[in-house]
Every structure is written in C-alpha cells, then in structure tokens.
Specification:
β2 (about 60-65) and β3 form a beta hairpin. α9 crosses α11 (about 225-230). This protein folds into 3 domains: about 20-105 and about 265-390, no CATH class; about 120-245, Orthogonal Bundle (Arc Repressor Mutant, subunit A), CATH 1.10.10.1330; about 400-479, Arc Repressor Mutant, subunit A, CATH 1.10.10. By secondary structure, the chain is an alpha+beta fold. It has helices at about 20-30, 30-45, 100, 120-130, 135-145, 155-165, 170-180, 190-200, 205-215, 215-220, 225-230, 235-245, 295-300, 305-345, 345-350, 360-365, 370-375, 410-420, 435-445, 450-460, 465-479; strands at about 50, 60-65, 75-80, 270, 280, 290, 380-385, 390, 400, 405-410. The chain has a 6-stranded mixed β-sheet, with helices on one face. Strands 1-6 form a two-stranded antiparallel ribbon. The N and C termini lie far apart (about 90 Å).
Length: about 475
C-alpha cells in the first residue's frame, strides 16, 4: 500500500484545561501561606484587586452543630456563610465573624524571634574572618557548599580530592582547620571522626576515649564488660566516658542553624460555644480574603478612554475571578472540614483511640465534590481541635474489620500499638515482640498479620523488639 498525504476530517472530544482552571486547581491545593503570597503578587500587578484586612471582616464564617448528649449523632444547626461576595459601596464587604471566641488565639504571635542565619552563612562568616590564604578560602567555600544535612562531607579524602582536582594533602590541611569551626565536628567523613573532633575541642580526648570510639559496636550490643576491657578502664569509668560521648552531637549540621522551630497554624478552628455546641470556623488570623476594588474603579471610570477601557477589562475580570475563586476555596475548606468532624466527632471527646475509618470517597459523596478535589483541598491544611492541631489528612485512614463485623480505623490501631509499646518503659515489663502484639490485638477483636504490625511500627518510627531490648540494657547500665 502506497503512502500518500491527504486531508481528512475527524471529530473527537477532549478536556481542555484553561489557564483559569489550572489556577483554580493550584489555589485549591496550596497552603494558606502560599495563597497569601500569590494574592500579594497579583495585587502588585493588578490595581483592581485588594486584600481584606482583619478589621474589614465583620463576623465569622463558621458552621455550628448541636450535639445530642445521649448519642454520638451530630445535627447540623446552621451553616452561616454570606453568599453575596460583591462589594457595592466599596466598604460593605460582609463576612460574619465572632471575635469573642478568636480573641488572643495567637497571643505570642508578635514575640516570635527571627530565625538565626543558616549554617552555610554562619560558616562563611567565620571563613572570611579566618587567617587562611585566598586560595584556601576559595576551597573552603566549596567545601561548605558540599556539606550534607548532618554536616558531613561525601565519600572519603582520596575520592573528594580527586573530585576537586587537588591533592589529598591540600584537602586535609584546610579540612583540619574547618573541622574546628563553630560548631565543631563539621567537615568530617565519619561519625567517629566527628565525635573525636568535638572531644578534642572540649579537651576531653584521651587514649581510653580513642579506644572507646573504635569499639562503639560493643556499646550498641550492650557488651559493657568486654568494652571496659578493651578501653582498659573500670565499669564506673566506662560509664562516665559513655556519658561524656552521649553529650556530643553526632550530627552537628542538623537542627543547629538550618531548621527554625516548626510553627503549625490552624486554617480551621473547632471549639465549643457557651451553649455547648461545636463550632467549626475559618481562622480569621490567617484566612485569605481579597476583593474587587469597586471604589477605585468607580473613581476612574468616568475618565477612561476607549483604549484605556479595553486595557483594564482583562484586569477587572482577573480581579473578580480571583476573589470568587478564593471565596470558593474558603467555603469548600469549611464545608469539607465540617463533614470530616461530623464523621470523627468521637475523636474530639476521646482522642485518637476513637478515630473512625474514613476515605476520600465518603467525604466526596457527602459534600458532592470529586475525590481529587477533596485530596487537593486537604493538602497542607491544618485544623485546631481540643486534642491538638492536626493536618486534615490525619483523619483519613483505611478500615479493618473484626470478627464481629465492626470496622476499626488503621489510625486507631496504630495508636493502640504505640500505647502498648510505651508501657514497656517500666523496667519490670516484658519487651513486646510483633507476635505478642498480634495476639494482644486478637483479644481485642482485631485480627491483623504480624507484617501489618511491623508496618505500623515502622510508620510510628518505633524500633524492633531486639533494638528496644538493647536500648533497655543500655539504659539499665547507666542507672
């Protein structure tokens, strides 16, 4: 069959993602902080868009529920959100708010300290003030950029020298100076070298300490008699030496300058009012609001020429569209959060052990939204409850059915496993293996496999029973 070019007509359907639809999806899934940044960028480019301050918001966007004391049923009492988002006079921009319940929600907000400079900047400042030559400083800047999160250099001296195209002696000369920069122990290749540098800096390094660092594997195994013999010290002296090493920082580059304190700010607040009803509301301290600047438009409208009018039309449309999109995002977040709390009402009173199985499909069906939209909406969103501040994703977990047909949440099972293992802190209680935990869960009517317990334990970052047993032995040695 000969190949030939020809014109043909085909008809098919496809979904076209407009720029507005892409931005709406983006607004739905970004965090509140990122949304504030996006609105600020739009305001810089569009004079017809303005941000609403806290003083311009009147009353609260909230959802209130009455609870029946005799059951866990939640009855929706009111869902009070102003539907009219238009600003007619330029000043009347109404959202309801109740400042009594929000007052002093962040009393220390203005007292948060500015984070310290990053580790790289701190080291660069020391390097500039050092007495090293210009060539050595250039190499030092390169090594600073090569540090990992723990403050280590990659590979070993020979491989790194080859990578930098210098001889090993030159690398070691500069590295032995940088190791004692603040904090000491950086620019090392191994943990032992890092601990050694810190001991030298504290003037605590000795031959017995050197032998201890070279036999740390015996410490991990809990073989203290053999370790004391290798170090040529008594058990009491060994205990003092180990206490000294434990006070050192094995990762001096981590959590020193890089990581400021993590502050979780809730997007949604759940609390009880004076009538003992649960109220779910947007946090007015951080909730993003913007609107079309109607008063500015009315002032310039009579003076506009036809060309100017054509120029500002897209910006007017963009301002109105963004304000409505942000409003829809806020309304959807409140609606979804209310439905999540409706399903997890027992959690508010009794904590994680009462978490119910919940999947995206359940919420999507209730609020009549697509599962993908729910998934985007709960991303990086936090809710403040009487049990603490949690990410909305926390309330979603799979279901595990027991012999009686009752469904258990995987999150509540993980909480129960954690509770069992925490009881091991008593020196007289036995270390629970995964098999023992499986049998204990069976007594509670929960039938899961040993590998499932191991998986949940890893999610909770709990070591195995062997590791916990060794840690207990080490703890008992120090006591």
């Amino acid at each position: 069959m000969a190949l030939q070019a020809r014109i043909s007509l085909q008809q098919h359907q496809k979904l076209v993602m407009t720029p507005q639809m892409r931005q709406a999806i983006h607004i739905l899934q970004i965090s509140t902080q990122e949304l504030h940044h996006l609105i600020d960028q739009e305001i810089e480019q569009n004079p017809f868009l303005e941000k609403i301050t806290k003083s311009q918001i009147q009353g609260s966007v909230h959802s209130q529920f009455e609870t029946n004391n005799t059951s866990d049923k939640i009855e929706e009492h009111s869902y009070s959100i102003q539907k009219d988002w238009r600003d007619i006079s330029g000043n009347d921009y109404s959202l309801e708010t109740n400042n009594k319940t929000i007052k002093n929600y962040f009393p220390l907000w203005d007292n948060i300290q500015e984070p310290p400079p990053s580790l790289h900047i701190h080291l660069q400042q020391q390097l500039r003030l050092s007495q090293l030559s210009l060539k050595q400083k250039k190499l030092g800047f390169v090594l600073i950029d090569m540090l990992d999160d723990a403050g280590r250099l990659p590979g070993n001296p020979d491989s790194l020298a080859k990578q930098l195209q210098i001889d090993t002696k030159t690398l070691e000369t500069i590295r032995q100076i940088l190791i004692f920069f603040d904090p000491p122990g950086l620019f090392c290749f191994t943990l032992i070298e890092c601990l050694k540098a810190q001991l030298i800096d504290k003037k605590l390094y000795s031959p017995s300490m050197e032998r201890l660092l070279n036999h740390l594997s015996l410490y991990e195994k809990g073989n203290f008699q053999k370790l004391a013999h290798q170090c040529k010290v008594s058990l009491n002296q060994l205990k003092t030496m180990i206490s000294t090493v434990q006070r050192l920082n094995p990762k001096p580059g981590k959590n020193t300058y890089n990581d400021p304190p993590l502050i979780r700010i809730a997007d949604i607040i759940v609390e009880r009012n004076e009538q003992e009803n649960w109220i779910i509301k947007l946090n007015p301290k951080v909730a993003p609001y913007c609107r079309f600047n109607h008063s500015f438009f009315q002032r310039i409208k009579p003076k506009l020429t036809q060309n100017e009018n054509d120029f500002i039309k897209p910006r007017i449309y963009s301002a109105r569209w963004l304000s409505k999109t942000v409003q829809r995002r806020n309304n959807a977040l409140l609606k979804v959060s209310s439905e999540i709390i409706r399903h997890q009402y027992s959690f508010l009173l009794q904590g994680q052990k009462e978490l119910k199985p919940l999947v995206l499909r359940d919420i999507a069906k209730s609020v009549k939204m697509h599962e993908s939209s729910i998934s985007r909406l709960i991303n990086q969103k936090y809710i403040s409850t009487p049990q603490g501040i949690f990410e909305l994703k926390f309330f979603f977990s799979s279901s595990i059915k027991n012999q009686e047909g009752k469904n258990h949440s995987s999150a509540s099972i993980r909480h129960y496993i954690k509770k069992l293992i925490l009881q091991e802190n008593d020196q007289e209680s036995a270390i629970l293996s995964d098999e023992i935990i499986v049998s204990m869960l069976k007594k509670e009517g929960i039938h899961i496999a040993r590998r499932t317990v191991a998986k949940y334990r890893k999610i909770l970052k709990i070591p195995s029973s062997d590791q916990r047993r060794r840690l207990r032995n080490i703890s008992s040695f120090h006591n």
